[in-house]
Amino acid sequence: MALIVQKYGGTSVGTTARILTVAQRIARYHREGHRLVVVVSAMSGETNRLLALAREISPNPSPRELDVVAATGEQVTIGLLAIALQERGLNAKSYTGGQVGILTDNAFTKARILGIDEARMRKDLDAGTIVIVAGFQGVDVDGNITTLGRGGSDTSGVALAAALRADECQIYTDVDGVYTTDPRIVPEARRLDTVTFEEMLEMASLGSKILQIRSVEFAGKYKVKLRVLSSFDDPESTSKGTLITYEEDDTMEQAIISGIAFNRDEAKISVMGVEDKPGIAYSIVGPVAAANLEVDMIVQNIGASGHTDFSFTVNRSEYQKTMDVLQNVRGKSFTAREIIGDNKICKVSVVGIGMRSHVGIASKMFKALADEGINIQMISTSEIKISVVIDEKYLELAVRVLHDAFELEKAPG
Ligand code: ASP
Ligand code: MG
Fold first, then answer.
1. Beta-carbon count within 10 A of 35 CB
2. d(Cα 393, Cα 391) in Å, to the nearest integer?
3. Phi and psi angles of residue 74, each rounded to the nearest 5 degrees, phi first
4. Residues 105/39, Cβ–Cβ less than 8 Å
5. Measured between alpha carbons, how far is 9 from 392 in angstroms, rounded to an integer?
6. CA-CA 20 to 30 A from 49: which of 6, 254, 328, 387?
7. Has residue 72 got a pLDDT over 80?
């Protein structure tokens, strides 16, 4: 008997038939004696459709009104799900974000949750009612409707679980958990029973787009037990998905490497022959940051005869803008022999908490890539990951050989 928050994403409620299946799963948890708060997204494709409607009318709609429009998607699904549960003879009530006191700041289209008033939900739960809440939305102090950014229902679910001190937050999606890598690239990829919160953050930000990154951060902050499960499994299935754990409460034997993450949306820029003197990194990265462009990996060569080369990566969609910024400040902020770029690169990373206590991971990684003749262009490391930048055309090969080299198809222990 637990208090469980379940979150169902867009594909899980994509049709009325899918909504009926969701209701069947909820009914099962209810029958098992659990108290349930259920957060839903809009039906898949609906948020895109709504935002496109606004853009048909204006190329630049006001963010406040965009949120008014976008938030309606979730209002449809909460009502439909409540009706589906009532059809099964269960007590269920649907609420918008505002109605259950999800208070946010007023940063329309990317608002942050400030607080949740659980009183109303508690009352329903005590009365045995299943509470259905619209994801992705809240209200600011003035009662304006706000949304939390694309994929924001994950964050709604985690925030509700934190506020209610739920025993578990179950995120239902179209995959049955977190995998050692993308199974479309490596068919032998294995579902992880557990992954630590830190590893999940690395995997999510590196392109394993299962959970909105902000929701993972939120879960970490409030130590919410998060579990990723599939809504496409049989509603009576006992599959446990992937549990995201916190290192301190994890007594299990940890795998050294948990997964291979990758990101195709990268571009590399090199500023060649800059003066090797204090302030040079700032003179290059400063103007880029001032233009609100996010710099990822950074490498500076050892200087030779007073000059050095400086390279970094940015999101591929911001490649041209970054090049323009650098060309504009070149000669003013810094001098350089040339500025070159490559937007056909990708980043591949080996992620694992066990790296903290094991040596030789980097050498094994580099050997596996060398054996395939894959040239490494940049390297960066942290306590729990090693990332390399390589030519985009080798991405799948690299992921495959690394998955193989670290024997990730085998369960640890
Ligand atoms: N419906 C919103 C979106 O499509 C929020 C979500 O699904 O998490 O981004
Ligand atoms: Mg989502």
1. 23
2. 5
3. -75, -30
4. no
5. 31
6. 6
7. yes
Rounded to two decimals, the pTM is 0.84
- Ligand 1 neighbours, Cβ below 6 Å, are 9-10, 41-42, 47, 73, 135-136, 150-154
The pLDDT, as a whole number, for residue 250 is 55
Segment 349-374 shows an average pLDDT of: 95
DSSP codes, 153-164: HHHHHHHHHHHT
- Tell me the pLDDT tens digit for each residue of 129-141: 999 999 999 999 9
Shortest-distance Cα residue to atom 9 of ligand 1: 150
Q: Which of 75, 136, 156, when mutated, tests ligand 1's pocket best, judged by the most ligand atoms within 8 Å of its CB?
A: 136
Residue 124 CA to residue 122 CA, distance in Å, equals: 5
Q: In sequence order, which ranges of 32-111 are alpha helices (DSSP H)?
A: 46-57, 63-70, 72-87
Please name the helix (run of DSSP H) or strand (run of DSSP E) that holds residue 234, with its range, or none.
Answer: none
Residue nearest to atom 8 of ligand 1 (CA): 151
How is residue 336 written in tokens? Answer: 């350089």
At 24, list the tokens: 């069947």
Q: Is the pLDDT of residue 2 over 70?
A: yes
Report yes or no: 344 and 310 within 8 Å, Cβ to Cβ: no
The amino acid occupying position 388 is V
Beta bridge partners of 196: 245
Q: Which atom of ligand 1 is nearest to the CA of 152?
A: 8
pLDDT in tens, 268-305: 999 999 999 999 999 999 999 999 999 999 999 888 88
**Percent of the chain at pLDDT above 90?**
85
Query: Rounded to an integer, what distance in angstroms lies between the CA atom of residue 173 and that of residue 245?
Result: 19
